[in-house]
Design a protein that fits this description.
The complex is a heterodimer of chains A (956) and B (468). Chain A is mainly beta and 956 residues long. Chain A contains 12 helices and 44 strands. Chain A is globular. In chain B, α3 runs antiparallel to α7 and α10 runs parallel beside α15. Chain B has 468 residues and is mainly alpha-helical. The N and C termini of chain B lie far apart (103 Å). The chains are: A mainly beta (956), B mainly alpha (468).
Amino acid sequence: MTAKKIVNFSRYCGLFALLISAAAFGQSGDLAKKNKTGQDSLRSIINISDGLARTVLTQDDLYRGDEPNISASLHGKVPSLEVVKSAGDAGVGTYLRFRGTRSLMLESQPLFVINGIPFNSRMDGRHYGHIYVQSRDLDLNIADIETVEFLPGASSSAVFGSRGANGVILIKTKSGSPGKPNIQYRTRLGINSIPGSYPLQRLYGQGTNGAFQENYSRSWGVLLEDVKTFDHFTELKEAGTSFDNSVTVSGGNDFGTYHISAGNYRETGPWKAGSYYRRSNSSLRGKLTPTKKLTISGSISLMASNGDYLQKGNNLGGFLVGALRTPPEFDNRIYLDPETGTHRSYINWDNGWDKRFNNPFWVMHEQVNATDTNRKFGYIASEFFISDWLNIQYRLGADATDDDRLTILPPGTARNPYGLLRTDNFTYHESDGTLSVSAVIDPYLRKLHNSFRGSIIVGHNWNKRRYDNQQIIGEEFKATIGIYQFSNCRNVEFNEDMWRINTESFFGRLSLKMFDQVLLDGALRNDASSTFGINAPREWYPSIKGTWQFTKLRFLSGLPVIDSGTVRVSWGKAGLEPMAYWTLPHYAEAWSRAGGYNGIDKQTGYVIAGTRYPANLKPEVTKELELGSSVSLLNSRLNIDAAWFRSETNDVINYKDLPHSSGYTSILLNIAAIENKGWEITADFRAIQTSKVCLELGFNIASLENKIVSLNGSYGRYRHKEGYPVNSNNYDGFIQTGYDYTIWDDDGNRFPMDDIYPDVPPGTLYIFEEGYPRLGYLTQIWSDSDYDLLGALYGRLTLFKNLSVSALFDFRRGGEIMNGTKGALYSYGTHKGTEIRGQRYIFDGVGPGAGKEVVLDENWFRSGGNYFSGSEQAFLEDAGFVKLREISISYLLKNNFTEHFNLESITTRLSGRNLFTWTDYTGFDPETMRSQDGINMDYFNHPQTRSISLSLIFNY
Amino acid sequence: MLSRIVMFIYICTSLILISCGRDFVNAPLIEDSPTLVNRVSPEELITAIQPNAYYTIQESAMPLLMWMQQINGIAAQNWNLDGYRVQYVSIPLRRLVDNFYRDGGLIDIRIATSLALEQNKNHLAGILMMWEALLISTAAEYWGDIPYSQAVNHDIEFPKPDKQSEIYTALHLLVDTAISEFESESKSYDTSIDYTYNGNTQYWIGAANTLKARMYLNCAELDFGNYQKALDCANRGISVNWKCKYSLNNGEHNFWYHYQQTRWGYITAGGFIVDLMLERNDPRTPFYFAPNNNGGYSGGYPQNGSYNNSFISETGIAAPDWDADLVSVVENYFIMAECYYMLGNEYDAINSVEQAHALIESINTYRIGSLPRYRMSGLTGPDLLEVIMIDKYLALFLQPQVWSDWRRTAFPIFTITSYDQPIPRRYPFYYVGAANPNMPLLPYPDNIYKRNENDPGDPVYPGKTINQ
């Protein structure tokens, strides 16, 4: 594992970090070199620190992830970083979260910064919910990436001000170096598939009460004897492939350097049809040094991608909703009616034209959910050395995304029996400019003490963002078949959503190194944003960090075991800006009054919006304290870093109800507070290190605790409750002890249930006379979907410097997930668990029916025993898991053979991903989320895949 | 030298690039959303205000119309309301309260009025004031003490309720201001957005006087002098009915048509009114009600309804193109009749009722010939008042004023109530979400039987047994 906790003096400044030449700071130039080699970079944890130890991944770490995008490649490699790729379909985006959730209404994903320029990693259209969407980090070609550095929270990301509270991911792309051209070609072929099947019953057919009923939605019919049945999940699967090719050329001379790359990625999903993703990348990065005092650098990257997706999740037109609910005897493979050629589904309404659920083969073969994306991003920067201690830099960057989507639901589709045509166009433009002046102030500091050194930076940043979404929805095709144009739709509706955000910032930073063992670092940023209220126009973001290299103390220096050690403390304040126009009172179309009644057109007038948007809305502010220590032992063969952090986010924006007489239903306020705390430990150990064998072992582990400290009367969404995590959900449950229920005796007297059963633990079911539990309105189960413990174990064995075997086990503990799929299928009678229908059962609990034997029949499964009308609590499951996330074997060929072909080396790698999962979760996989923003809800979500791939890297 | 030139150019260029200008974060195109509407005209607001007011007054009248037994609630929340079980329908009731203040309610009326006055569209401002007076006086009739003076004020998070009489005092001033606006010079505006009178200020002045007369009458128990004030206003009262429409589109005017179409089976005819009209052989019966399955007319009594009873006639008063009255000439005559009676002039009281009957008969839509002068001749004292009020009760079918009339006069006398409980006297306050600590959240059933200050006690009529 080459992920290293390193410290780079020059990287500190984050957004403008890469503007700052290492040459301006002697010590950081040394560090930059050390970081390129494994052992030296490990030692750098100890030797020099700016107050934080940070994880840095190299391109090789990302390649081992065997994923097309960097986010999905991060599983288990960064402490406290939650990575959720919600499904294994081709081109699915990935959700990231550092050190817990800090907001109730705003995004929790970290900010991406590439070469000093903010990078769009949005998941546009996610909340429409009908397909898995891409996250825009998919647009990056890993072949272009040199390093990825992680700033997990406000104590390290404060310099990013109003966009830094969720942490920052700093990406540095590859650049050339003087010398002969380096050419690298990488090709990779992978196979991905869904492991196993889904537990479906194949004993009982369509119908109810043990009898067949045509067009019935559920499978509570006859026992199927001598009837052919189908595995409605397995019949959909087909191994997908991925093919990744990239070539890079880099080189240069004293006047300039260059790095050119081109890549192409193709993937088909693990289904028989309807899921693919293709991407082409090209990029150029260069640097010119026309004079000794001036350097000009820049890059331009182009990306084009397209794909097709399957409808998913809580959507009657969804792929698995229809598949898993189909009675076992119905042959879904014949998805077109042989006589009419129209959609054939197991359930037909309205004389067969209106399907309640889609045949999954219809979804795969007939529906279109296509994306077509073009993107351009890059920067140009210049640096002028005014003197050997003072320089001035300017960096200008831009990022433009054009994302077109097309949905075609042909006539006959469930919920859209007459068809639907929809286009979405998402455009996102961001431009960013930073001026910074940096100075080495060693001469002035030496006047105070000979050991003092330092630097100072001041600067200015502006940033513009523009988002447009235009949506056209056409319903009811006039011509039944084939003409999918808006002119062929009876009803066409146009919607648009646009916003603009401008921000402007000043920043400064002072760094001091004292007594050759203490580093102090203070920074201050001041932000103005168009998203702030007029009464709160600017916000300050200070941070301070200190590191003490305690092993420099005389009595510790020279100890045989400890090579070096530091303790550090850092504190920072970072923010999350409100959404655009949250401070802008506005009007809404007044259609609701008449909208509920038939035959009344929408009104043309306007009314003031129901939510009051106050003029004094401020950014949400997170203050984080981090304490940490790093030690390097056994001649740097064992390196350990430990950190404790606690952050409190105040001014969290939330809705608060207003009395009706105010004229509004609610108001947006900076009102709530959230706490995140936890610890992280990272360790690397070179257990064996000889000239021929090297065995490296390591782990990272993090404990996270999230809590809503106060809502101050705001309610937000239904799931928020003080003292509970942000990602809690409120679920119904059966009547049980511990919830202040009252029961009656035969004489009509009332008694508290908990007084009658004082000796049973809370949560014991109350069984009624008939022998069943009943749903209780007082039972409110607050689930916690956040993992309490997450981390990874990894190891790498290198033999003869050529052969390398590595593995990474990823684990999560403590989160909960709602298995809504299972809960729904219990009602539909298609889940394997409903095969026990008719069996006798005794519910465990107390009460007059305790111990009574009952029959688990259709009535039970369709009343108390399912997710819709029964106990949701019964389907809440442990989301913990251990996965063999990565395993690979690689061989570096570098001998006469390669020389014969003028090659420097050839690397061959065979790798596997997600090959094994150990979990108690009874659904597909606990790593999923319906709306792609974390975990905790599985409702006909698509499963994860496992993959095996072979890659070759040719270096010239 | 070259380096210095390069440095100079570099620094100048950098400074130009950072010179975002003071407006960088609050430039018009940044501060204003490209898609959100943050500027509207008073005309755009009033086109939303009118249907909201109409809808709100009509829908929120549904519980009281059940309690006044003009309709019978037989399904969903209406079944509970019909049985006075308002605690089960707190969310619908809260939504009803909301609509008086937002989504085209008071907050939008105030904004529109302010804009109209800014633009010197005084007549339009007067119309908006009339809508405010109608909406708020209706809400005060329903709930009693409600927030008004502190309502829709950004500086006050929890508005305090005003006494109902204080609200009426303020509304009288508001209506007087509206009248003065109608009488003043005004910039022109698109009068077609005035669905009521197409900008005719004389019609509006008449309606303003009848609304004032109604408010005086509804506070008459507090001050007997209000009968004379009400009479004076009614004598200057309405000449063309104040009706409302959702829009100018045909077929979109009648709340009851759309309610029955969308919520079929939620309400039928009330048993009391049907039996009363059948007893009187009232020719308006087929205009009010559709024949039941047996071809006759029947209604349901509280908690004893049936789908087999008559629905509201969709070829008559619930026809899609029928415009319901909010303030009418007929009501104005009945206000005069009650005032004359209370002021001791029974002759003019009867005369006013006769004028109302004549007007009703003159409306071709009814095609009813002559209305029965049921027991009118020779009556005097409470018997005469009862007949006046029953005639008004029948004439103002589906109009919320009948509840105020009943609370004030105890007529009509309802012999059957839900499980023999008293008939509710007010709507309760219920909150889901933010509670206003200033509001009297009384426990059920106190909250529905507590009288507001306009009906401080039961009227007593010698020789009459009144079920309150």
